[in-house]
UniProtKB/TrEMBL annotation, chain A:
<feature type="binding site">
    <location>
        <position position="172"/>
    </location>
    <ligand>
        <name>ATP</name>
    </ligand>
</feature>
<feature type="binding site">
    <location>
        <position position="349"/>
    </location>
    <ligand>
        <name>Zn(2+)</name>
    </ligand>
</feature>
<keyword id="KW-0833">Ubl conjugation pathway</keyword>
<dbReference type="GO" id="GO:0002143">
    <property type="term" value="P:tRNA wobble position uridine thiolation"/>
</dbReference>
<comment type="function">
    <text>Plays a central role in 2-thiolation of mcm(5)S(2)U at tRNA wobble positions of cytosolic tRNA(Lys), tRNA(Glu) and tRNA(Gln). Also essential during biosynthesis of the molybdenum cofactor. Acts by mediating the C-terminal thiocarboxylation of sulfur carriers urm1 and MOCS2A. Its N-terminus first activates urm1 and MOCS2A as acyl-adenylates (-COAMP), then the persulfide sulfur on the catalytic cysteine is transferred to urm1 and MOCS2A to form thiocarboxylation (-COSH) of their C-terminus.</text>
</comment>
<comment type="similarity">
    <text>In the N-terminal section; belongs to the HesA/MoeB/ThiF family. UBA4 subfamily.</text>
</comment>
<feature type="binding site">
    <location>
        <position position="265"/>
    </location>
    <ligand>
        <name>Zn(2+)</name>
    </ligand>
</feature>
<dbReference type="InterPro" id="IPR028885">
    <property type="entry name" value="MOCS3/Uba4"/>
</dbReference>
<dbReference type="GO" id="GO:0061604">
    <property type="term" value="F:molybdopterin-synthase sulfurtransferase activity"/>
</dbReference>
From TrEMBL, chain B:
<keyword id="KW-1017">Isopeptide bond</keyword>
<comment type="function">
    <text>Acts as a sulfur carrier required for 2-thiolation of mcm(5)S(2)U at tRNA wobble positions of cytosolic tRNA(Lys), tRNA(Glu) and tRNA(Gln). Serves as sulfur donor in tRNA 2-thiolation reaction by being thiocarboxylated (-COSH) at its C-terminus by the MOCS3 homolog UBA4. The sulfur is then transferred to tRNA to form 2-thiolation of mcm(5)S(2)U. Prior mcm(5) tRNA modification by the elongator complex is required for 2-thiolation. Also acts as a ubiquitin-like protein (UBL) that is covalently conjugated via an isopeptide bond to lysine residues of target proteins such as AHP1.</text>
</comment>
<protein>
    <recommendedName>
        <fullName>Ubiquitin-related modifier 1</fullName>
    </recommendedName>
</protein>
<feature type="cross-link" description="Glycyl lysine isopeptide (Gly-Lys) (interchain with K-? in acceptor proteins)">
    <location>
        <position position="110"/>
    </location>
</feature>
<dbReference type="GO" id="GO:0034227">
    <property type="term" value="P:tRNA thio-modification"/>
</dbReference>
<dbReference type="GO" id="GO:0002098">
    <property type="term" value="P:tRNA wobble uridine modification"/>
</dbReference>
<dbReference type="InterPro" id="IPR016155">
    <property type="entry name" value="Mopterin_synth/thiamin_S_b"/>
</dbReference>
<keyword id="KW-0819">tRNA processing</keyword>
<dbReference type="InterPro" id="IPR015221">
    <property type="entry name" value="Urm1"/>
</dbReference>
Length: 525, 110
C-alpha cells in the first residue's frame, strides 16, 4: 500500500467513526430526555400511591368498615377534585423556584400568577430565541411556543445557548425543548416545526398572548409583524449583526387596525423593505455571541415587563406604556446603549391604519409573497465561461504545466488574488496568494480606467501595483465565488487586462470549491 | 446657539450605525461644518445634508447603499437629536447649529 492509500483509508475510517459517534451522542441525548420524563411521571404517580401507607397498620387491625370505606373513597379521589379550595395560589416548589423575583415589587405574587397564566410564542430559536426562551421559561411563563424549521449546526453553538454539540443536526425546536425542559419542567412547551408561512401564521399565533420576533430575514419580520397587528398581539422584536443590536416593542398597546392609540408596527417604521443587496446575514457579516445574546435577553425582559403589567394594560391601554422607542446597542461604541423616540402609527400604514390592505383573509389565502416583496439576489453570474476556471483545473496549474502559458508550474507564473476581507485571509489562505479585500476593491472609483487617475498619480495603490506585472495572468478567489466575479469585472473596467492581452478570471465556487474538490483539510469556517 | 456662524456655516455631528459606517471609511462619528444655506439660498435641511454627504463626504462609490431616489434608501432610519425624523418633518427639517443627526441601517440577523 502506498502512503496515499493509507491516508485515504485512515480518512475514511475517521469519517465513519465520527458519524457513528455523532449518532450515539444523539441517541444518548434522546434517551436521557425520555428517562427524565419517565422519572417525573413516576414521581407524580408514586406521590399519589404512597399516601395510604401510613394508615396501613390501622386498616389491617380492625378499623370500622364504614369509616374505612369513607377514607378509601377520599384517598382514591385525584387531588384536584377534592372540593376544598387550594390553600396557596402557587405550588410549593414555585415559591422556592421563583422566590428571588417574587419578592420584588415589580413582580410580586400578582406578577408571578400573570406570568404563569401567560402564553408566549418565540419565532426563531437561534441567537435571539435561545436566550429569550431560557429567561422566559426560567421566569415561569406558563406556556412557551417555539417556531423554527432549521436544524442545529456546529456554527450555531457559539451563540445559540440552548443547543449542544451532542444535538448537532437535531431540529432546533426539539433541541431547545430538551434544554428548556431540564431548566424548568413546570412550563408547557409547544413545538411548531417548520418555517412560518403566511398560510400558517394566523393559526400559529392565535393561542398566544405575545410574540417575540427572533427571526433573521426581512421577509419573516414583515410577516410576524403583520400577523401580530391582525390578531392584536404585542410584538417584541430584536435583531443583531456583528457588534450591533436593535430592539423595538411594536403594536403595543395592541389596538385594532385604524385605532391611532395603538403602537406602531414594523411597517410603520419601515414601510418599504431594504434593497436585498444591503441585507447582510450573520453568516456573511459575522456575529458576536454576547451581542445577539444581549438582545435576546432584553427581549425576555421587555416581555416580562409587559406580561406582569396585567391584562388591563394589554387590552385597554389605559396604563399606557412607554412611548414607542428603538433601543440601539453598539458593543464597541461609548455609550453602548442609546434610545431613540419613534413615530406613532403611520396614517397610511398597509396593515395597522384605516387604509390597511392586508387583512387576515389576504394573509390566509397565501396570496402575499413576502419573499418577493423583500426581493432576492439572483446568484451572481457576470462572467463568461472563458473567464472562469474550476478549482480542480486551478490546482493543476499549481502542480502541472500552465495551459495558458505552457510554462512549468511555478508560484511566480501567475498572480493569485484573494479578495476576502483581511481578517478572513489571516484565518487561512492558499500559499502564495496576495490579499486585496473586496471592500477596498468596491470602494475604488471605477473611472480610473480613463487613465486620468494613473497620470495624476491618484490611482489606488492596489491598481497600480497590479498594473506593473502585465505578463502574469490573474486568478481571483474569494470565499464562495461571488465577490471574485465582481472583482474580475471591475479589474477589466480598470483596464488591468491590457485590452484583453492579459488573462484575468475567477476560481469558480471560491475556496469552498477548493476545499470540496482539491484540499479537504482547508479550514471550513 | 441656533444661529449660523458669521461665515454662514453650521457645525453639526453626524453619526452612522448598523453597518452604514462602512460606507463612510469606518467612521462612526463625524464632526462636520456645512453651509447654512443650500444652493437656492434656503436654510439647510436634511435633504441638503443627505446630498452633501453623498457628494462630498462619502468616498465609497456604492451610493445606492445610502441613497435611492434622492432620499435615504429604505431600511435607513434618520434620527434628529435622538428622535425619529418623522417627528421632526422628515427631510424638510431645517438643521440647527449643534444638531446630532444619526443614520441607522436596520439589522435583520438573529
Ligand atoms: Zn403599521
Amino acid at each position: 500500500m502506498g502512503p496515499e492509500t493509507v491516508i485515504n483509508s485512515l480518512r475514511q475510517q475517521i469519517t465513519s467513526c465520527e458519524s457513528q459517534l455523532q449518532d450515539l451522542k444523539r441517541q444518548l441525548a434522546e434517551a436521557e430526555y425520555q428517562s427524565q420524563q419517565q422519572r417525573s411521571n413516576l414521581q407524580s404517580e408514586q406521590s399519589e400511591h404512597c399516601a395510604p401507607y401510613p394508615l396501613a397498620y390501622d386498616f389491617s387491625h380492625g378499623v370500622h368498615d364504614d369509616f374505612r370505606a369513607e377514607i378509601l373513597a377520599a384517598l382514591s379521589q385525584p387531588e384536584e377534585s377534592i372540593p376544598s379550595p387550594k390553600r396557596w395560589p402557587l405550588d410549593p416548589n414555585e415559591y422556592k423556584r421563583y422566590g428571588r423575583q417574587l419578592i420584588m415589587p415589580e413582580i410580586g405574587l400578582q406578577g408571578q400568577l400573570r406570568l404563569k397564566g401567560a402564553s408566549v410564542l418565540i419565532v426563531g430559536v437561534g441567537g435571539l430565541g435561545c436566550p429569550a426562551a431560557a429567561y422566559l421559561v426560567g421566569a415561569g411563563v406558563g406556556t412557551v411556543g417555539l417556531v423554527d424549521g432549521d436544524t442545529v449546526e456546529e456554527s450555531n453553538l457559539h451563540r445559540q445557548i440552548l443547543h449542544s454539540a451532542a444535538r448537532v443536526n437535531m431540529p432546533k425546536v426539539e433541541s431547545a425543548m430538551i434544554a428548556l425542559h431540564s431548566l424548568n419542567p413546570n412550563v408547557d412547551m409547544v413545538p411548531h416545526h417548520g418555517r412560518l408561512t403566511p398560510e400558517t401564521a394566523v393559526s400559529t399565533f392565535q393561542p398566544y398572548d405575545l410574540v417575540l420576533d427572533c427571526t433573521d430575514t426581512p421577509a419573516s419580520r414583515y410577516l410576524v409583524s403583520d400577523t401580530c397587528v391582525l390578531l392584536g398581539k404585542p410584538l417584541v422584536s430584536a435583531s443583531a449583526l456583528r457588534t450591533d443590536g436593535q430592539l423595538m416593542v411594536l403594536n403595543y398597546p395592541p389596538r385594532p387596525p385604524g385605532d391611532t392609540a395603538g403602537g406602531p408596527c414594523y411597517r410603520c417604521v419601515f414601510p418599504k423593505p431594504p434593497p436585498p443587496e444591503s441585507v447582510v446575514s450573520c453568516g456573511d457579516g459575522g456575529i458576536l455571541g454576547p451581542v445577539v445574546g444581549t438582545m435576546g435577553v432584553l427581549q425576555a425582559l421587555e416581555t416580562i415587563k409587559i406580561l406582569t403589567r396585567g391584562p388591563s394594560a394589554l387590552s385597554d391601554g389605559l396604563a399606557s406604556p412607554d412611548p414607542p422607542s428603538l433601543l440601539i446597542f453598539s458593543a464597541y461604541a461609548n455609550p453602548m446603549f442609546r434610545t431613540i423616540r419613534l413615530r406613532t402609527r403611520k396614517p397610511k400604514c398597509a396593515v395597522c391604519s384605516t387604509h390597511a390592505t392586508i387583512t387576515p383573509e389576504v394573509l390566509n389565502s397565501g396570496s402575499l409573497d413576502y419573499v418577493q416583496f423583500c426581493g432576492t439576489i439572483n446568484p451572481i453570474d457576470v462572467l463568461s465561461s472563458n473567464e472562469r476556471i474550476s478549482a480542480e483545473n486551478y490546482a493543476k496549474i499549481r502542480l502541472d504545466v500552465n495551459p495558458f502559458t505552457g510554462l512549468e508550474p511555478s508560484k511566480d507564473s501567475h498572480i493569485l488574488l484573494d479578495v476576502r476581507e483581511k481578517v478572513q485571509f489571516e484565518i487561512c489562505s492558499l500559499e502564495g496568494s496576495v490579499n486585496i479585500p473586496f471592500s477596498t476593491i468596491s470602494s475604488t472609483p471605477a473611472d480610473d480606467c480613463k487613465g486620468t487617475a494613473t497620470e495624476t498619480g491618484l490611482e489606488s495603490g492596489w491598481v497600480s501595483e497590479l498594473r506593473q506585472h502585465t505578463d502574469k495572468p490573474i486568478f481571483v478567489v474569494c470565499r464562495l465565488g461571488n465577490d471574485s466575479q465582481i472583482t474580475v469585472k471591475k479589474m477589466k473596467e480598470l483596464g488591468l487586462d491590457n485590452g484583453g492581452q492579459r488573462w484575468i478570471g475567477d476560481i469558480r465556487g471560491g475556496l469552498r470549491a477548493w476545499r470540496h474538490n482539491v484540499d479537504r483539510d482547508f479550514p471550513d469556517y | 446657539m441656533s444661529e449660523a456662524k458669521n461665515d454662514g456655516t453650521i457645525a453639526i455631528t453626524v453619526e452612522f450605525s448598523g453597518g452604514l459606517e462602512m460606507l463612510f471609511s469606518n467612521e462612526r462619528k463625524l464632526s462636520l461644518t456645512i453651509p447654512g444655506k443650500d444652493e437656492n439660498g434656503a436654510k439647510t435641511n436634511i435633504a441638503f445634508l443627505v446630498r452633501h454627504l453623498c457628494n462630498t463626504v462619502m468616498k465609497d462609490p456604492r451610493k445606492e447603499l445610502f441613497v435611492l431616489d434622492d432620499t435615504v434608501r429604505p431600511g435607513i432610519l434618520v434620527l434628529i437629536n435622538d428622535a425619529d425624523w418623522e417627528l421632526e418633518g422628515e427631510d424638510k427639517y431645517e438643521i440647527e447649529e449643534g444638531d446630532n443627526i444619526l443614520f441607522v441601517s436596520t439589522l435583520h440577523g438573529g
